[in-house]
Amino acid sequence: EDGRSTADLELHLPSEAVLKGRVLAPSGADLRKMHLLMVPDAFIGLKNGFEPSHAWQRRMRVAIGVDGHYESGPLPVGSLRVHLGMPDTLLPTGYGGGAIEWIGQKIDLGQVVLQPGTQNVKDFDIGDHIPGSVRVHTNVQGASNYDSVVELCSIRSNGASRFLRTEAGAPLERDSWVQVGPLIPGSYLVVVR
After folding, report:
1. Prediction pTM value
2. Longest dimension (CA), the chain
3. What does the alpha-carbon distance between residue 193 and residue 191 come to, in Å, rounded to a whole number?
C-alpha cells in the first residue's frame, strides 16, 4: 500500500542431467588425487574467454573413484567442456605461517552434450595424457633442509612479460626428499625455497 507495484516473476530453469562413466587409464595409474572439471557452456563466468573463479571451479569438480568411475551431480542440459584436473597446490609462504594456493593444471578431454531424460554415459581415455610426478632430493652443504619447499614451475609469457607459474609443489620431508605431482608431462623449472 506504499504505492509500489508488484509483478509476478517466472523463472525458467534449464533441465538437468547427470554424466557418468569411467576414466580409462593404463594399469597402475593413480587417479586418486585427480578430478574431472565439468564446465557447462552456459556458465555465465566464461563469457569473453574468462575462466571461472577458484571457488566456482571447486563446485564444478567431480571425484574419480579408485577404479576410474565417476558420476556428476546435476548439470544443465546442453554442451559442457570436460577437463582432467590435477590437485591444487597449497604451500607455506614462509612468512608468519601464511600459505598460498594455486589451482591445479588441467587437460582438456573434450566437449560432451547432455540430453534430458536419458542415461548420459561417457568414458574418457587418458592413455595419451598420463600425469607424472617428480621425486626431488636436496642437499645444502651436506645438511638436510627439510623446512624448504619445492615448486615445479612453468615459464609463461604475457606479451612482453615472462613469469613463473607454480604448477605443483610440496614441502620437503625430514630426509630432504619429496614427491611432487601428479602434473602434466612437460618441462619445468625446479625452485627450492
Report:
1. 0.77
2. 82
3. 6
